[in-house]
Fold this sequence. Notes:
This protein is mainly β. The chain has a single domain (2-14, 24-336), classed as Outer membrane protein (Lipocalin), CATH 2.40.128.140. It contains four helices and twelve strands; from the N terminus they run αββαβββαββββαβββ. The protein has helices spanning 2-11, 59-65, 149-159, 268-271; strands at residues 22-32, 45-57, 79-92, 109-123, 129-143, 175-192, 199-211, 214-227, 252-267, 288-300, 304-313, 324-336. Strands 1-2-3-4-5-6-7-8-9-10-11-12 form a twelve-stranded antiparallel barrel. The longest helix is centred in the middle third of the chain and has 11 residues, at 149-159. The two termini are 40 Å apart. 42% of the residues are buried. The model is unreliable at 1-18 (pLDDT under 50).
Amino acid sequence: xxxxxxxxxxxxxxxxxxxxxxxxxxxxxxxxxxxxxxxxxxxxxxxxxxxxxxxxxxxxxxxxxxxxxxxxxxxxxxxxxxxxxxxxxxxxxxxxxxxxxxxxxxxxxxxxxxxxxxxxxxxxxxxxxxxxxxxxxxxxxxxxxxxxxxxxxxxxxxxxxxxxxxxxxxxxxxxxxxxxxxxxxxxxxxxxxxxxxxxxxxxxxxxxxxxxxxxxxxxxxxxxxxxxxxxxxxxxxxxxxxxxxxxxxxxxxxxxxxxxxxxxxxxxxxxxxxxxxxxxxxxxxxxxxxxxxxxxxxxxxxxxxxxxxxxxxxxxxxxxxxxxxxxxxxxxxxxxx
Length: 337
């Protein structure tokens, strides 16, 4: 046991990077299915998502961040990061072999977007309350055939000899979407086994999305345990993780659980387009949706980060028969430029 603790402490020792701009390139993949069946052979509801993000830590990002007002004077020595994320998500009913409209199930839809985001974080010493993180993001997106959701799903199913989707003629029509996303995380150190030992942290969070695609508010938190990096928890494709202090560890790794609750006022992907008649079957969204996510994240070989998690969600629309789940996988590489 002593050898295990010693090795973990050695691996988690700090790595000194030159005071140069840093970047993180991340590849994201999400797919419906249950734990242990990350690549599922059938699709339903949120069927898959693929994307990439580039996050920068540089002087020009700091200059932009310094222009963001600190309304409650919470940040004394803030650090900043910013970047872009692009992704394609696909949504279908449960029966993807049915070519006719399905009035009691989720509509067919593809959503392609580019998001620009800015992050701000402060670290606090000498107290259990050890940090505050904020992010602002603008998403410019497209729903409909031009999103290429149909092309992507048909290509994947054909390549892997899976059930061929036959209902894309019923998908939502083209419409441009714009959304603003705000996210806020507090960090509390609950327990620590020394500077280089295992730690237990609680990261409550809250946020909202306001726009034409989605209008919702959310609240929840992350509980994580392990050899922790100095950041604000794991991310996903739609929730870019903190990069305001690039990792300075050869190794860090932890397990986490993240329950969340959402109040949804508007969701185009369920109830249909904003500016035109849909001419397709749509459904009424449930206003309260809960999710439970659990997984792990590992930072290794100085610059690589791997994360995997499983997300379970309660019903998202009236008439939905079962809860949904999907797995997420991301791989990041950190470098100087």
